[in-house]
């Protein structure tokens, strides 16, 4: 992004943000108009970056759910670091070198694993190059549970063995990998984290890990207590830099835009490398999952306070030393020193800080965080909240972006509920969000809004790209039938049986069933949207039931900016749902991709009122095995009795302590409020 363009966009975005803070939505709408015109004249990657931050402003103005990271928009600086971490290995190498006296072996504990295979960036490469007899090294990885299906021990051992030869060390044990989100979650019987001998150096690497834990005061306290128990020789910390402690939205917005601006330029050039395989793709998702892109971070002083109370002191890092330099300053450079830490950034923009810690000489105990300290309630990364504004009816751009943001949240909620990996959003009369089509012959032309599509995996992302090509080539699509339908939706039980789709790219993605739902803007009546939900081949009755339930759920959601464009009476829809026949007494789960299934959606008996449903079943699959009802945990291999006579207390107890379940300090999915009046509970 050229400097003049980025400066102009940032100025307009900040002006729009100020207008929203002041409640001047008329001016904000005008600034948005200029922003979107400017974005429309730029390259594709710049358009997406600008639209993302414009979307964030509209969400703040109207109190909509915060935007979640999406595979279609990769900007998180943590993932940026994973590809270039080898550039600062020399800095860490010098810290370790200065503490080598009397050391004859190493234990390296890391929370990230290499997935960008072009560089030798395993944790072993942070060691100095030794002469003489190779020193023994053992490596332990503590990884997020979602990576379990991707880690290949043989491949990782290949990386470690190669890098060990480069620095003249030998791997003492087989690679040890355990799954958890912190040291505190790791069972001592799973991995030996403590020093085995007095001449062993233990190094713990925290790369963009502690900022997540610090949001939960108890989780952070448990981690520091465990860290003190392990008593490592050195702790390396790399995280987001912040030079202010206040939560002013405009400051956070400016910082976040500059973060994303610097990383996204590099990202787009190397995008093919980042999404080369499901492993790298999900690593990118993990670093930003659930985060609002506009956020603040703890300051160096706040980190110093926490580590000091845990019994650690800083190891000074001096950027003036000749040997403290990065290997390629085009992407990352040492910008200076602050509070004995190194500030890293790019082109004058500070982005990260690197710090090193060691146990204090005195063997003190961790001083529990007091309730009156600001970390006592956990660190809130979000800027100070804003009282939601009432919709500005004359605000064309505000209403347009708000409608698309609301559609995206609806799509994600329903896709997560029914375990769908793909939902596409299309808008009529809108091309690149900055103009209105005036030609009456084109009033029903639809454009895909890729910033607002839900793509849960790499396959879905590529489908979205191919779908756009199909639209450009003029292939007939189901959006036309949905738009013309009086019911407000069009259900296609099997796309493979439709002549127009037999040779299309749909088939290679294991997609067959689909429902397209037509929505309209409540405040701009001539703007229409189509939301398309897709799923793999399945029994026609189940597929039809799924389509109707998606439509029924969407129709009953509390929304502010969009509504279903339907002319059929409500009673007709309810009759359609209740009259769906079932092929068996029990519902059949529908598999999507790997190990995923749609929730049971067929009633156990025709016209039988659905029983109340316990929330515990969100975490368990219930099925019959050897003639008995069993409940299998979705997060670990454990199986329990699922008989109704046994109740759900034992399942609730396991759910609270399950080691594979996502912990509170991790980011969670957005949940939209649903109007449940006069409706039976969801299965």
Automatic annotation (TrEMBL):
GO molecular function, one term: zinc ion binding
Motif (LxCxE motif): 14-18
Annotated spans, Disordered: 643-683
PROSITE patterns (alphabetical): GRAS (PS50985), ZF_BED (PS50808)
Pfam (any one): GAF_NLP
Keyword set, alphabetical order: Metal-binding, Transcription, Transcription regulation, Zinc, Zinc-finger
Residues covered by the BED-type domain: 611-665
Region span, SAW: 287-358
Listed Polar residues bias regions: 643-655
Sequence similarity: Belongs to the GRAS family.
Record's protein name: BED-type domain-containing protein
Record lineage: Eukaryota, Viridiplantae, Streptophyta, Embryophyta, Tracheophyta
């Amino acid at each position: 992004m050229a400097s003049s363009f980025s400066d102009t966009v940032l100025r307009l975005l900040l002006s729009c943000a100020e207008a929203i803070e002041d409640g001047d939505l008329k001016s904000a709408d005008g600034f948005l108009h200029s922003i979107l015109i400017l974005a429309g004249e730029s390259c594709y990657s710049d358009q997406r970056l600008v639209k993302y931050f414009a979307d964030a402003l509209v969400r703040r103005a109207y109190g909509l759910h915060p935007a979640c990271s999406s595979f279609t928009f990769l900007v998180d600086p943590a993932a940026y670091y994973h590809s270039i971490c080898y550039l600062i290995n020399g800095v860490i190498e010098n810290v370790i070198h200065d503490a080598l006296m009397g050391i004859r072996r190493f234990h390296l504990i890391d929370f990230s694993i290499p997935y960008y295979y072009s560089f030798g960036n395993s944790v072993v490469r942070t060691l100095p190059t030794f002469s003489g007899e190779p020193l023994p090294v053992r490596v332990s990885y503590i990884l997020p549970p979602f990576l379990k299906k991707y880690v290949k021990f043989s491949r990782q051992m290949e990386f470690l063995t190669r890098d060990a030869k480069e620095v003249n060390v030998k791997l003492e044990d087989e690679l040890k990998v355990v799954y958890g989100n912190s040291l505190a979650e790791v069972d001592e019987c799973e991995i030996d984290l403590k020093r085995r001998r007095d001449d062993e150096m233990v190094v713990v690497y925290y790369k963009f890990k502690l900022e997540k834990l610090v949001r939960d005061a108890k989780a952070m306290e448990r981690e520091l207590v465990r860290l003190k128990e392990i008593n490592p020789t050195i702790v390396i910390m790399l995280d987001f830099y912040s030079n202010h402690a206040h939560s002013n939205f405009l400051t956070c917005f400016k910082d976040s835009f500059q973060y994303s601006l610097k990383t996204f330029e590099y990202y787009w050039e190397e995008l093919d490398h980042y999404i080369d395989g499901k492993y790298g793709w999900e690593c990118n998702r993990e670093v930003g999952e659930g985060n609002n892109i506009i956020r603040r971070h703890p300051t160096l002083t706040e980190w110093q306070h926490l580590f000091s109370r845990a019994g650690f002191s800083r190891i000074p890092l001096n950027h003036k030393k000749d040997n403290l330099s990065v290997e390629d300053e085009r992407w990352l450079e040492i910008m200076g020193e602050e509070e004995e830490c190194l500030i890293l950034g790019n082109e004058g923009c500070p982005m990260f800080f690197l710090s090193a810690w060691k146990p204090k000489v005195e063997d003190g105990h961790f001083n529990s965080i007091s309730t009156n300290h600001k970390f006592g309630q956990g660190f809130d990364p979000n800027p100070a909240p804003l009282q939601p504004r009432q919709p500005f009816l004359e605000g064309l751009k505000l209403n347009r972006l708000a409608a698309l943001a609301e559609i995206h949240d609806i799509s994600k909620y329903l896709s997560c509920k029914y375990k769908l990996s793909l939902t596409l959003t299309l808008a009529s009369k809108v091309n690149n969000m900055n103009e209105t089509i005036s030609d009456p012959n084109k009033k029903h032309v639809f454009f895909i809004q890729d910033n607002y599509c839900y793509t849960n995996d790499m396959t879905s992302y590529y489908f979205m790209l191919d779908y756009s090509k199909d639209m450009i080539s003029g292939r007939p699509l189901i959006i036309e039938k949905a738009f013309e339908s009086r019911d407000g939706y069009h259900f296609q039980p099997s796309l493979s049986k439709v002549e127009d789709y037999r040779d299309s790219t749909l088939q290679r993605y294991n997609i067959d069933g689909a429902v397209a739902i037509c929505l309209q803007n409540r405040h701009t009546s001539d703007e229409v949207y189509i939301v398309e939900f897709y799923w793999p081949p399945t029994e026609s009755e189940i597929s039809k039931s799924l389509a109707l339930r998606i439509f029924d759920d969407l129709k009953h959601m509390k929304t502010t900016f969009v509504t279903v464009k339907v002319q059929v009476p409500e009673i007709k829809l309810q009759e359609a749902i209740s009259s769906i026949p079932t092929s068996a007494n029990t519902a059949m789960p529908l598999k999507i991709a790997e190990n995923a299934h749609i929730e049971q959606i067929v009633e156990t008996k025709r016209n039988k009122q659905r029983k109340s449903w316990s929330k515990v079943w969100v975490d368990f699959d219930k099925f019959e095995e050897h003639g008995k009802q069993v409940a299998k945990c979705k997060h670990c291999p454990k199986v329990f009795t699922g008989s109704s006579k046994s109740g759900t207390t034992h399942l609730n107890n396991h759910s609270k302590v399950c080691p594979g379940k996502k912990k509170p300090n991790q980011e969670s999915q957005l949940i939209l409020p649903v109007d449940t009046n006069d409706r039976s509970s969801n299965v």
